[in-house]
Amino acid sequence: xxRNAEKAMTALxxxxxxxxxxxxxxxRRPFLASECNELPKAEKWRRQxxxxxxxxxxxxxxxxLGEFRIRDLNDEINKLLRxxxxxxxxxxxxxxxxxxxxGPKMLDHEGKExxxxxxxxxxxxAKDLPGVRELFEKEPLPPPRKTRAELMKAIDAxxxxxxxxxxxxxxxxxxxxxxxxxxxAVEKWKMEREARLARGEEEEEEExxxxxxxxxxxxxxxxxxxxxxxxxxxxxxHVPVPSQQEIEEALVRRKKMExxxxxASETLMAQSEEAKTLLGL
Length: 281
Known about the structure:
The chain is mainly α. It has helices at 4-8, 11-20, 39-59, 67-93, 99-102, 133-136, 148-153, 170-198, 215-228, 244-263, 266-279.
């Protein structure tokens, strides 16, 4: 007795199946959603696309398919998603529900929302492909900024450099550098002194007169005074102006007189006056 599978493969069975399907044409999904003008058919094609997406999402979970096959599957899923969006827009135009607004979110097999909802999406093993995993890694949060009060806690005398000499390192270095600089200055002075002696120049140590005024400086000051006092009557002193030495002697005499008046008696004062008269001072 023949089995059912063998009966189905006989020529009579195939001829009978062809007779039953005669006159029936398998309807294909339109390439453009805008070519469909019936709401039920648009709903039907949308459901068909969702079925194809489900099958391919189930296939792409297998990481053993290889990188190229996984990439192809991921591209096909994204293409079907775009096509589904066109059909949903067409259904809305025909008066149907707005699936883009009320439809469920797209989730992966773990129940998480598929990353990249507004563009190209990655499913299943495609998320672990080289160069894709880095896209989903979140950047570490920057360290929180410290407040002014927290910064002031770490400020002490060492921050301002008051303890730089306590380490016993800085002072020896400074002393060594100071000796080096002094030795260089002395050596330079000796060389200059020898050079002057070789030229036959005599060294003369002159006392510095703090009251001396250079001719150039006096000329400059006089020129400035003339410029500032242009148009005004010049002042000429007809009284002899005392020199610096005469002023110093007068100050000394005045100081002596004050001391004598303070500590000497009247008799001593009178005797000193008589002595000055006799001496002609």
